[in-house]
Write a structure and sequence with these properties.
Blueprint (H helix, E strand, L loop, with lengths): L5 E3 L4 E9 L1 E2 L2 E7 L9 E3 L6 H13 L3 E15 L5 E13 L8 E7 L2 E11 L11 H8 L6 E6 L7
Parallel strand pairs: 2-7, 6-10
Antiparallel strand pairs: 1-2, 2-5, 3-4, 4-9, 6-7, 8-9
Length: about 170
């Protein structure tokens, strides 16, 4: 079993992850992990030795049970934020626009993922792009990207911690 690329120190947690943007019928597929109260794009950690392209396909198959292909690379983000456990986070995340190889419906669904022995509840929700402003989406900068006509963002640095006492 490969190791996920993540580091914990006294001051910060670091993670290297990949997210897949799936849009169908003007709806975007988002997920609430472990009843966090917010939504994010499906995806997961990059493991040592994997490319981000391999990871996004693997994670979507594991979480959604469908095969996807990459339609377009959207960008990479360096994100600094406080997680739900009040830990400072430093995240590097690659984003891809994904297209299903097999048919995927737009019904909400829940799965329990077995992630290396840990059971994780994933509540998937299809959100109408016209109603995106009504949802708490993380990382918060991605909400603005979803509201825009242009999904590409190349390289983005988003530093929520600039306003947080360190």
């Amino acid at each position: 079993m490969r190791e996920s690329i993540k580091i914990k120190t006294e001051d910060y947690n670091f993670k290297f992850r990949v997210s897949g943007l799936i849009i169908k019928n003007n709806k975007v597929l988002l997920v609430d992990m472990e009843d966090s109260g917010f939504l994010c794009l499906p995806g997961g950690y990059v493991e040592l030795g994997e490319t981000t392209e391999v990871v996004v396909k693997r994670e979507l198959l594991e979480e959604i049970g469908k095969k996807f292909e990459i339609s377009k690379y959207l960008g990479v983000a360096e994100n600094y934020f406080i997680n739900k456990y009040s830990r400072k986070m430093h995240e590097i995340s690659f984003f891809y626009l994904m297209m299903p190889i097999e048919n995927i419906d737009t019904n909400d669904f829940t799965i329990i993922e077995n992630d290396k022995g840990h059971k994780i509840k994933l509540d998937f929700k299809w959100v109408d792009l016209k109603e995106i402003e009504n949802y708490d989406i993380r990382p918060s900068f991605f909400k603005q990207i979803l509201e825009s006509e242009n999904l590409e963002f190349n390289h983005l640095i988003y530093h929520e911690l600039n306003n947080v006492k360190k």
